[in-house]
User: Fold these one by one.
Assistant:
Number 1:
Amino acid sequence: MVHKRVAVLGAGSWGTALATVLADNGCNVMVWARRKELAEEIDQHHTNQKYLPNQILPASIHATHSLRDAVIDRDIILFVVPSQVVRTVAKEVCPYVKENAMILHASKGFELETYKRISEVLIEECVDWKERLAVISGPSHAEEVVRRSPTTVVVASESNQVAEEAQSVLMNSYFRVYTNPDLIGVEVGGALKNIIGLASGVAAGLDYGDNALAALMTRGLAEIARLGIQLGADPLTFVGLAGIGDLIATCTSQHSRNWRAGYLLGRGEELQQILTEMGMVVEGVKTTQAAYSLARKYQVEMPIADQLYSILFQKKHPKQAVSELMNRGRTNELDEIRGFRKS
Ligand SMILES: NC(=O)C1=CN([C@@H]2O[C@H](COP(=O)(O)OP(=O)(O)OC[C@H]3O[C@@H](n4cnc5c(N)ncnc54)[C@H](O)[C@@H]3O)[C@@H](O)[C@H]2O)C=CC1
Ligand SMILES: O=C(CO)COP(=O)(O)O
C-alpha cells in the first residue's frame, strides 16, 4: 500500500472517523479543525470528545487550526465539512493545494444558494481539481467506523484511475470500498437519503411502526431516483451503497442525526430548538429546501420531500402531512418509479 500524506478538512464525527481509517492504513494524516481547542485536543490528547465521545484516536493523527498548514504538501485533500461551508473552505485552500493532489469529499448535501452538488462547488472554486476528484458515500455511521465495525462505502469519480487510487488508499479489513463511475448518482443518493431519514424519524416519533418505515424507504427511494435521473444519474446507482444502502442505515439507526431530529419533530419539538440542542450538522434540513426547489425546476414529483418541507418550514402538523401523503390520488407503482403520472 502507498502511504500518502493526507489533509482531512473537518474535525466533526465523519472527518475524525475517516482520519482514523487513513491512519490505520499507514497514511500521514493532518486534520484541520475550525476551533483551536479541538485541534489541540486531537493533536495532543488523541480524543474528540464532542463528536466521538470516549474514543481514543490513533496517536499518529495530527491536527492543526491553520487551513494553509493543513493542506501544504499533501497528496490527498479530503473535504468533510458541512455542505454549506464547502465553498468557503475550498476557496481558502485552493491556492495552497499541491499540483496533482487528489481531491476527495465526503459531504452529503447540496449548496443551498445554487442547488449545486458538492463536486460542482469544488470545481467552481478550483477548476484544476476537475480531473482528480472523487466522492466517498454509502452507509457509514462515524460512531461504528471508529470502532472498526465492518463498513462498506463507494467512491465515485469520472476518472476510473482516481476512483481506484482512492479505493486503495481507503480500503482495509473493516472498511470495504467499491468504485462507481456515476459521480452524480452517488452524490445525489447521499444527499437525498437524509430527507427520507428525517421523515422516518418523524414516523417513529408519531409511534408509527414497521409498515410506515418500509413505505417511506421504498417510496422515498422512488422519489430519490426520479430526481436523480433528471439530474443525470445512472438509475442503478440507487440500488447500490449510495442509494438503498445509505437509506437503510439512515432510516433505521438512532446514530443518524437526521433520524433523531425527525424523531423529535414527530414528538412535537420545535426545529430550531432541536438543531441547537443537537449541536451537530443535520444536512437533511437544508437538503429538503434544495429538493423542494429542484423538484419544481425539473418537474419531478417528490411527495415525501414536499410534505417534510411543509413540516419543517410551514409548521404543518406531522399527522396532517401523513394524512395528505396517504390520500394522494390513486397511482400505479411502476409508472411512478418511471416518472410517468396520470394528471
Ligand atoms: N457523521 C457521519 O456518520 C457521517 C457524516 N457524513 C457527512 O459528513 C459531513 C460532515 O458531517 P459530520 O462530520 O458528521 O459533522 P459534525 O456535526 O459531526 O461536525 C461538523 C463539523 O463541521 C465543522 N463546522 C461547522 N461549521 C463550520 C464552518 N462554518 N466552517 C468550517 N467548519 C465548520 C464543525 O466545527 C465540525 O467539525 C456532512 O455532510 C455529513 O452528512 C457522511 C457520512 C457519515
Ligand atoms: O450519512 C450518514 C451515514 O451514512 C450519517 O447520517 P446522519 O448525518 O443522519 O447522522
Number 2:
Amino acid sequence: MKQKSIRKQDALDYHSKGRPGKIAVVPTKETETQRDLSLAYSPGVAEPCIEIANNVENVYKYTAKGNLVAVISNGTAVLGLGNIGPEASKPVMEGKGLLFKIFADIDVFDIELNTQDPEELIRTVKVLEPTFGGVNLEDIKSPECFEIEERLRQDLKIPIMHDDQHGTAIISGAALINALELVNKKIDECRFVISGAGAAALSCAKLYLLLGAKIENILMFDKDGLVHKRRTDLNKYVAPFATNTEGIETLADAMKGADVFLGLSVGNIVSQDMIRSMANDAIVFAMANPTPEISYEDAVAARPDIIMATGRSDYPNQVNNVLGFPYIFRGALDVRATGIDENMKMAAAKALAELAKKPVPDIVNLAYNEKNLSFGRNYIIPKPVDPRLITTVSIAVAKAAMESGIAQNPITNWEAYEQELAKRLGLDNQLMRYIINRAKRTPKRVVFADAENLKVLKAVQQAKDEGICIPILLGNVQKIQRIIEEHNLELGDVKIIDTRDAQNADQLKRYGDIFFEKRKRRGYNQYEAHKQMQVRNYFAAMMVETGDADCVISGLTRNYPNAIRPALQVIGRDEGVKKVSGMYILLTKKGPLFFSDTTVNFNPSVEEIVEITELTAKAVEQFNIRPRIAMLTYSNFGTADGEDAVKMREATAILQRKHPDMIVEGEMQAHMAFDTDLVRENYPFSKLAEEGANVLIFPNLSAANISYNLLKETGDIEYIGPILLGLRKPVHVLQLGSSVREIVNMVAIAVVEAQSK
Ligand SMILES: NC(=O)C1=CN([C@@H]2O[C@H](COP(=O)(O)OP(=O)(O)OC[C@H]3O[C@@H](n4cnc5c(N)ncnc54)[C@H](OP(=O)(O)O)[C@@H]3O)[C@@H](O)[C@H]2O)C=CC1
Ligand SMILES: CC(=O)C(=O)O
Ligand SMILES: [Mg+2]
C-alpha cells in the first residue's frame, strides 16, 4: 500500500542531475531556417506587435499569454517548512510548474519574490499582469496572503488564486463531502477540530461553513493554542472562528468526541491517544506537508473505524491541492475568465467529489498497484493520475465561469472542448507508467548478469524500491558489496551469486549437466559445457531455464549477437518461432512507436518479415495497445518495384491474408504511416487512413537501426530497447551506454513478459 520512502540523496540527485531544476522553456514554432527566424524575431515580429498595440485583446491571439500562468511565492510559508525564503521555495514552485504542465498542459513561469512586504508584492504582481493568463499565488504566509489575494482579485482582470487557500479548500471540501457520506453523518451535526489558523486552514473552514458546518462546532488551534474569544492576539481573519467554549485548553482536550480533525499546521502534533478519543467513524485529514500531523500508519493503527487522509502521494486518500489547481486554471483560461469566483470553486469541489464515485479506469488502478479501487474509506477522492480529472474538473469550472458571467470567451461546443482537453494530456509517459505498474502487481525474480556495475546496481535499487522485481545479482560478492557501500545503496539481503566461487559448485555442476545434455551434439564437450556455466550470461540464462529465476537482464554490451547467444543456446526460441528479432519502443509525445527489427536480422526474407511483424504485434498487444502496422520502404502501394518494395508488398499481402483482423498496411513510405489526410486523399482503401500507425516494420536492419537512432538523437525522445522477441523466456540485453532509467524500464518490460509466460 505504501511506497518505500524517498531517500534524501535520491531527491537531491533528481533535482541536480543533467540540467539543474525541473523545467525549461521550449519553442513552439519552427526555428530551422533564416526565414523562420525573421518571422519569429525582427522584422516579422513587428506585425503582431502592431496588431496588439491596435487592440490589446490580440495578445491572446499572437502570444503565449493565454496559456501562461505565473506561480508566485515569497517563500514565507513553504509547505510546512515555514518561512525559508524565496530561493528555497523555488524547487516547490518549479514543481508546481511541472504539475501544471503534465496534468493540464499549462505553461508556467515560476517567480520567487524577495519581499515580505504585502504592498510591494501586490505592486509587483500587478505590473506582471500583461505577461500572464493567470496567477497562482503559492506558499505565502497568513495573514498577509488574504489581503494580497483580495486586492489582486479586485485589480487584475485575469484569473488569480492563492492555491494554499482555495485549492486546498476545494479538495478537502470534496473529500469531506464523500467521507461524511461514507460514515453517514450530517455536516451540521459534526464537531470539527482544526489545527492551523493559516491560509489553508481558514479557507477550508470557510468552505466547510458554506457546505453546512456550524461555526459553533469548530475548535481551531494555532501555534499559541486554542483560538478563543478571550485571546487578544487574533487577527481579523482568525477572530471569527474564536470559540467561547470553556474547559478546553489543549488539542488533546478538543479532540475528545470530535467527528472531524483537519490538520493544516505542522507535522507530528497528534498522538494515537488523541485519535482514539475521537467519536465513532472519525474523519482525520492530516494534511501538513511533507510530514502530516500524524502519520498514516499511526492513525490507522490507532483505530479501525477511521477515514484517514494525508497530503502525500504515497498513501491512500491523497488530499492535496494538485487535484485542483491544474484543472481549475485550465477551465478558467479556456473561457478567458476574468477571475476565479466562488461558483467556480464549488463546481470544482462537487465535480471532484462525484468523480470519486465513478468506476476507476484501469490506468489508475495500475498506477497505484491496486486491483480494484472503488469509492470507499480508502478511496474518498480521485487519484492525481486520473486522466478524467482534466475533462471533469476543467469543464465544470468553465461552465461555472460562464454561469457567473465572467467568461470572456464562452465555449459553445462542449464535445469538441472535451476532446481538446483529452489531447492535452501527454501520452509519452503513459505506456511506461502502465508497464511499471503492471510489473509491480506480480514482481518477478530478475537475474542481473552484470551486477558489478554502478549503473546496474542503481537500477536494481530503484526497481527493488518500486517493487518491480526481486533481484538476483551475478558477480564478485566483495566487489558488488564495495560499490553498494561506496554509493550508499541499500539493497538489504539481496542474493549475490559468484559463478566462479567454489561455494556454488553444486549449482554450477547441475547447470553444466543440463547444458551438456542440450548441446552435446552441437559442438560442446563435457568440460566445455561445464566451464561455460561460469560465464555469467550462460549462468543467468540457465537460472531462468531451470526456474531458479524468471528473467535475465544481461550485461551492458557492444556486441548484440554475442550477448544473445547464451540465451539462444540455453533457453531457445518460443514454439514455432524460426528466428528471434528485436524491437525498440520510442516514447513520443503522440504516444509510443514500436520499431522492428532493429537488432538481429540483417536482411530478412519475406517470410522473416512476416514473422518479425507477428512477433512485434504480439508484444505490442501485451501492453494493451492495438497494433496499427505500417510496412515501410521507399515506395507506396506499388509505385516502385525494387527488391525491398516487392519484399514489403509481399509480406503485407501474406499478413493481410493470414490475419484478416490485423491492421497492417503497405508497402509505404514512412510519412504515409502518419499523414492520414494524405492517405485518405490518395489511398482511401488503406487500413491506416483514419488513424496513423504505431508499429513500423522496416525492410532491413540498416533502415530500422538508422531510423530509431536518428529519432532518439535528434528528437530527444526517450526509448526502451532492444526488446528481444521470440525467446521462450524473457532475456534482455542492455546496450552499452544505457542509463539507469533505461535499465529500470527494461526490467519492468522483462517482468511483464515473465508474468505471461
Ligand atoms: N495537502 C495540501 O494540499 C496542502 C497542505 N498544506 C499544508 O498546510 C500547512 C500550513 O500551510 P499554510 O496554511 O499555507 O501556512 P500558514 O503559514 O499560512 O499557516 C500555518 C498555520 O499553522 C499554525 N501552526 C504552526 N505550528 C502549529 C502548531 N504546533 N499547532 C497548531 N498550529 C500551528 C500557524 O499558527 P500561527 O498562526 O500561530 O503562526 C498557522 O496558523 C503546511 O504544512 C502545508 O504544507 C497547505 C496547503 C495545501
Ligand atoms: C500542497 C501545498 O501546496 C502545500 O503543502 O503547501
Ligand atoms: Mg502550497
